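Posted in: Protein Modeling Q&A

I'm a second-year student putting together a small comparison for a lab meeting, and my supervisor asked me to include a predicted structure for TIGR03619 family F420-dependent LLM class oxidoreductase. I've never done this before, so apologies if this is the wrong subforum. The sequence is pasted below exactly as I got it from our records. If anyone can share the structure token output, I'd also love a short note on what stands out.
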Amino acid sequence: MRVGIDVFGAERFFDGAIRGALDLAVLADRAGVDLLTTSDHLGFTRQAHAERVRTHAFPFPLEQAWPEPLSLLSAVAAVTERIHLGAYVLVAPLRPAVLLAKQIATLDAVSGGRARIGMGVGWQEDEYAAAGIPFRGRFGRLEETLAACRELWEAESPSFDGSDFAFDDFHSLPRPVQKRVPVILGLGSSQRNFDRIARVGDGWAVTPADMPDLEAGVARLRQTFVDHGRDPGAAEVQVLLPVQVRDDGAADFDAMADAARSAVAAGADTVLLRPSALPVEGAELDAVVAWLVSLTDG
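Accepted answer (user: helix_wrangler)
Welcome! Here is the predicted structure, written out as tokens:
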């Protein structure tokens, strides 16, 4: 089992200071956490936010800050040494492919080869409208965006002809340190999405809706890798642990440990925790991180 920490919302432990996420990153890096992620939205309309709260119990207020992930991860890279850096998940189609490729390649170069990015398509049509990007066709745009990134990262003479953009013999440096930057796609459990992952991705960031059928989903994903001529064991499966609390309102770490072990038994190999979602205070972060790392002991 690999363990990860999601630093989204960590400012609540540091008197509202966004840079407090860097202190949490240093703590996790030194403790032996494998992966650090954060979450992504460019913004919300008030109406779309209220609807998401109503229909999906969206847990974040409209006033919640959403630092741009690749900017934050670059800052994290500067203060850490070994932890991998990712997103759970980046709404990739909102970024121009050439710019996104440059940002991730720069992050990988600055961090010495530690980028491990989660990508998805998001859910908010108003967010796409605000960015001037069509909401319709976003799944195909995600696949084309990642394919274009791989071309820019890996090809000797990068060329791409997509539905919305194209380039020919276009060289964008620096290139990533890694031969292949791992990209984990956060998509719903469907054959079409698993085919997308097998074509251009390296794994699956599981959505909360798919957690009850995780074992079946993982089996389907790995078979899809086989069908595409890829090693099924190479498909990484990431899950974000749901918060569980005791009757007295305290975090139930025993129940969450059981949930982590169950996820691994079902096929997950990376389990993430978001401390800001827990009913804990800043003084308890050391203990929370130590607990997270202890999950790898067995």
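A couple of things worth pointing out for your meeting: The chain has a mean pLDDT of 97. The domain at 37-182 is CATH 3.20.20.30 (TIM Barrel).
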